[in-house]
Amino acid sequence: MNTKNCLSDQERSLRNISIVSFVVVELTEYLDTHPDDRDALSYFDYYNRMLNQMAAEYAVQYEPLNIATAGSCGREWKWGMAPLPWERSCC
Fold this sequence. Notes:
The protein has helices at about 10-35, 40-60. The protein is mainly alpha-helical. It has a domain at about 10-70. α1 packs antiparallel against α2. The protein is elongated.
């Protein structure tokens, strides 16, 4: 079964955020041991900006993923109102 077809837009967005988040964490760990690697720092800056943008867009459309995006939801305070990760439905 092709799982890509059964993902909702929200699930697809969350999956993409998870992928970019993984890249940011891995780059962070690499930079901890290679702080002078300018290429890695450039990649980190790029993917970290991408992650922040994706998380802000997700917060506007669905719910905040972290406290940093809680204010992106408009006039409602949605932090703490979203289902926990294990409460989400899956295919």
